[in-house]
Q: What sequence folds into this?
């Protein structure tokens, strides 16, 4: 019995959906155009939790509009021009429509019939990106749920290329991973998940520009081989999360070729620069990689989660999870690109590629190149503005859309001061920026994710920081 007819009613859906779309459009207009609009309304975690706990007790209502209004009012507004925080895409509204479609279709992707379109869209988009990168037609890839899973999967593939540990376990072999000291924590986590322990992550020191030091790389590698460690891969940052600095991929790639090491490029954030003719030089050498990840949901304007995992050699991508799953496919020896679960950690997987494909189809490749040029350009503008103000110390000249800097006041502890500034900015909620620790010092960190942001907002940010700093005791 029950009210399943109403739950699935197309008429109810139409009625509610029209109102939701109008509400979202009004929200966007307000957030984008009203300079008074805050980026977030800060609440302590417990207060937020209590609110939603009380809300849960209220009567049920088949119209989701009131709920959605509350969700918006209590969320961070990334479309605000003063959003300069963590690296998630400020999504073009059309992707909320593709997201609607992929939700209602809910095609599971794991096997061909459950994702006939999805698996094909993935192959098309992956081939386009692989070509951009400079991979040839032996390459292959697919979409995974986020950069963290992408890095883990690539490292599993690297180990599978080197050993049969996928079947036999690590045994006593000392598998190790070479990474920059600035690498994302997901690499360290992947090593632990593989059962290698944290000591397996050999962190190579960086220079004053936060790039991996090539001579140190040689030293760490020689020491590792002396210690009978088996290097399964070297991970290059393109770019690193904290500073937005790119490793010298060409040198890393050559080092890997010389020593027969799998080269993985973590381009979760900055791999998308391949679309910019102005900035793609930062990725010079990326074609030497055995595997690459690029998050669509960071610099490719797509809703979370959606990550491209690319392999130079298609055959490598099938070794990672080779295993029988007879209810899904008949023969695990077949290289069926269209049975996506053969190669992914996920069994059921979202058809998130539709969001990316939609952007390509609605706005063309140009939209990705414009996005990179605007965001990286904004970081250059911010860098210039900061340099004009004697109170700011800049950690490193930005290469991407990430800028790290700190405010300095004579006689005041810079770490306390900048931690204070970060907290105050978040509580005021006008802007959203982040903080990071570099060489054990606290820096403010801005990642310019919103292509609608302009110089006006950057100047306003500098004023806001200066005002807050003047209240520090
Ligand atoms: C964000 C990021 C990751 C993790 O990706 P998720 O999609 O957040 O899981 C990995 N590496 C780098 C360099 C990143 O910036």
A:
């Amino acid at each position: 019995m029950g009210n399943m007819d109403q739950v699935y009613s197309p008429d109810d859906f139409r009625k509610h959906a029209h109102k939701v779309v109008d509400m979202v459009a009004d929200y966007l207009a307000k957030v984008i155009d009203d300079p008074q609009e805050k980026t977030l309304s800060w609440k302590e975690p417990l207060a937020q939790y209590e609110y939603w706990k009380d809300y849960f007790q209220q009567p049920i209502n088949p119209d989701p509009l009131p709920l959605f209004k509350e969700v918006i009012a209590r969320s961070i507004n990334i479309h605000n021009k003063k959003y300069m925080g963590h690296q998630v895409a400020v999504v073009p509204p059309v992707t909320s429509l593709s997201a609607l479609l992929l939700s209602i279709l809910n095609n599971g992707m794991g096997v061909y019939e459950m994702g006939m379109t999805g698996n094909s869209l993935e192959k098309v988009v992956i081939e386009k990106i692989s070509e951009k990168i400079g991979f040839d037609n032996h390459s292959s890839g697919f979409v995974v749920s986020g950069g963290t899973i992408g890095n883990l999967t690539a490292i599993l593939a690297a180990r599978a290329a080197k050993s049969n540990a996928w079947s036999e376990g690590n045994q006593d072999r000392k598998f190790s991973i070479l990474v920059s000291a600035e690498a994302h924590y997901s690499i360290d986590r992947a090593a632990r998940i593989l059962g290698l322990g944290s000591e397996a992550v050999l962190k190579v020191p960086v220079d004053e520009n936060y790039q991996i030091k090539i001579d140190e790389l040689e030293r760490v590698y020689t020491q590792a081989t002396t210690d009978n460690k088996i290097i399964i891969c070297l991970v290059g940052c393109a770019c690193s999360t904290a500073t937005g600095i790119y490793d010298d991929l060409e040198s890393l790639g050559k080092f890997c070729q010389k020593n027969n090491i799998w080269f993985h490029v973590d381009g979760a954030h900055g791999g998308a620069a391949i679309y910019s003719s102005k900035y793609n030089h930062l990725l010079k050498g990326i074609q030497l990689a055995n595997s690459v990840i690029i998050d669509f949901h960071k610099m490719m304007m797509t809703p979370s989660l959606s990550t491209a995992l690319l392999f130079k050699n298609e055959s490598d991508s099938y070794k990672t999870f080779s295993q029988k799953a007879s209810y899904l496919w008949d023969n695990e020896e077949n290289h069926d690109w269209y049975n996506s679960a053969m190669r992914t950690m996920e069994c059921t997987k979202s058809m998130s590629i539709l969001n990316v494909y939609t952007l390509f189809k609605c706005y063309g490749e140009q939209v990705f190149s414009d996005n990179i040029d605007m965001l990286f350009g904004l970081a250059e503008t911010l860098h210039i503005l900061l340099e004009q103000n004697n109170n700011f110390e800049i950690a490193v000249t930005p290469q991407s859309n990430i800028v790290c800097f700190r405010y300095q006041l004579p006689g005041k502890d810079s770490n306390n001061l900048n931690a204070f500034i970060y907290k105050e900015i978040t509580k005021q909620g006008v802007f959203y920026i982040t903080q990071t620790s570099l060489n054990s010092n606290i820096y403010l960190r801005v990642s310019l994710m919103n292509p609608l942001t302009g110089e006006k907002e950057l100047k306003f940010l500098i004023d806001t920081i200066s005002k807050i700093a003047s209240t520090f005791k």
In short: The radius of gyration is 24 Å. The first strand starts at residue 140 and ends at 144. The chain has a mean pLDDT of 94.
